[in-house]
Design a protein that fits this description.
There is one protein chain. By secondary structure, this protein is α/β, with parallel strands linked by helices. It has two domains: 235 residues, 3-Layer(aba) Sandwich (Rossmann fold); 196 residues, Rossmann fold, CATH 3.40.50. 30% of the residues lie in helices and 29% in strands. It has a seven-stranded mixed beta sheet with strand order 13-16-14-17-19-27-26.
Amino acid sequence: MKKQAACLAVLGTGSDVGKSIVTTALCRILVNRGLRVAPFKAQNMSNNSGVTAEGAEMGRAQIVQAEAARVAPHCDMNPVLLKPVSDVGAQVVLNGAAWIDASARSYTGKKEFLFAESRAALDRLRQRYDLILLEGAGSCAEVNLMAHDIVNLRMAAYARAPVVLVADIDRGGVFAQIVGTLACLSPEEQDRISGFVINRFRGDLTLFQPGIDWIEQRTGKPVFGVLPWFKHFHIEAEDAVVIEGPKLARHNSLDADRPTIGVIRLPHISNFTDFDPLAQLPDCRLVYLEQPQSLAQLQAVILPGSKATSTDLQWLDQTGWQERLRRYVDDGGHLLGICGGYQMLGTWVHDPDGIEGPPGSTRGLGLLPVETVLKAPKTTTRTAFTWGGIAGYGYEIHMGQSRCPDGQSLLCVQDRNGTSCNDADGCISADQRVMGTYMHGFFDTPAITRRWLSGIGLSHVAVDQLHGPAARDRAYDQLAEHAAAYLDIEAIIALLPRDLQERLSHRS
């Protein structure tokens, strides 16, 4: 039997402390050193998901990490994905396919089954790689949840993985984060923590040396490094927390002298990473809009994906956004809907089987002649398409099927999951100013982005060929360089089995 791959776990003192970033950095650093590396997160909770070549759905964070490790994403890297549809419920995607909708309480009763499924996925990965980098979820010291943990210390123990604990100094209280996390753990769990990485430091690192000394003396464990905040490159975010709060554009806060594209920050927004290529353009600005406001100064507005289309449509109506959007279009504005946003642009969204809540129908914005029926099975495809003869490549994740009149579709679909086809996708208004598509990753192709920008009057905005996937790959190299400059990589490598240490020392 082939020897199982070694494992190393990256856990956190809380949510959004930088576990995904550290894991992504180690993926690229160690694959550059010659190891076959794969990421793994037993359970991910996010509405940012993607599709593998096999048509399986998984969290985008592990897709990013697989890209950093230069391997094809596979749902074994994220066997359980929770996609929240309310504050207390989520769709459960198991091994790449929609499984059940579950409340938080009912989901707890399925944890042992899901832990077994996650162990099996990890075991399969360990047959194919040299090293598996396990990412945790939230805090690894949530004492009320630890008995049913399937993603943090319990999984690390199953994998016999040493743990690097990540803390975030930018949010304050980093010493309490670290010492408090250890205090919540049993002596055996404390022993599994091998050391710490402190993330998001601002200022003069030398001034923090007394803090490092205190942590090491207090805990008896090393600080593997302090990562300064970075702004010179961009890595996709896992959670919508990054587009909340002060980053949202408020009333009268938009820069009228700079071309600006607005994205409506829906309550159940999904796959907002679709817009990262636009956010990285140097000559225009991308803003997320939560509070209803005048849109007159925007070159275009985007309705993004949603995990609860009917609920978010009702939110648009109740908040006054529907009126604002209709007025914007009446005044000559350009509006794009992607996936759930595309469904919202139509006349009706029907949910006869209660896919997203109580059965019924919700009136749409009526800006496209499209009617949508939400129904199973879920569409999850990698999709090749053309738009006006320009080839693009994206992915689809949706429960609904939308009908658009002949002659008004937006894209020609040529291939889904490796199978040739001759289908249509999306819809465009007669005046070309309102359009919708199911295609996530729409802006990953430079020529597609250029055509869309030209259509909204921004043909002068430069789109580099280093865009979409190529830009992401460059950013992984920049992240690896950044992390290697500030982390003691050799000390982290010393946590691995001796045979891997020797292989890495020969290749360094």
